[in-house]
Amino acid sequence: MHTVTTLSTLADNYTYLVESHGEAVVIDPGEASPVLRALQRSGSRLVAVLCTHGHFDHVGGSDELARTGCKVLLPEQIAFGKQSAITFGSLRFTVLSTPGHTADSVCFYLPAADGTSGDVFTGDTLFVGGCGRVLTKSPATMWASLQLLATLPPDTRVFCGHDYSLEDYEFAATVEPNNATVRARLEQIRALAEACEPTVPSTIGQELATNPFLRAVTPEMKRALGMDSATDVEVFARLRRMKDDF
Asked: Considering its fold, how many domains does the chain have in total?
């Protein structure tokens, strides 16, 4: 059994401390001090730092955390294919290759020890209600990565790299103004924001139902955009351009 602690870092980043049997792995430490304080409270020993990609706001605390003696792994330091595993004690992560935001972006999937669906740490690939900017300039590549995440079990918890959830669902509601499920989700996110509560975790199932970028595959989304005969990638690319200008 593992636990996940959500740490707010920098302006709007999420860093995650995953703990099991007194050992801890931190994911995307934008800064070190919140991680070190959390470790002091829990008493766990930090064994590894995992980074979904190399942008400064996801790796900024890595050098300081490395002084504890833990391993620090950026995507280029992990030998992986489409899906590979890395293990730290009782924590066995599946590394998912998810290029699109950057060429080397990865996500980390952690099944639960009791056989339930577990957690996925998505960095800047999949957000709650959104997705990352396509800095590789390849919508098809990003779409393929999102579709890989969409194949995870629906009750997989989603822990993303930023809290952009309110803006993302405000955008979703403008794209599909008649979608009652999206409007209800927007109100949930507003309530969390007003209470200064984290908007993570979501679930893969919830994202499939309400995230406009994952809904690019649906006839309803294509109809909303007037793109009934377009491919899924074309719809996704249109949505990403719209969000960039939102």
From this structure: 1
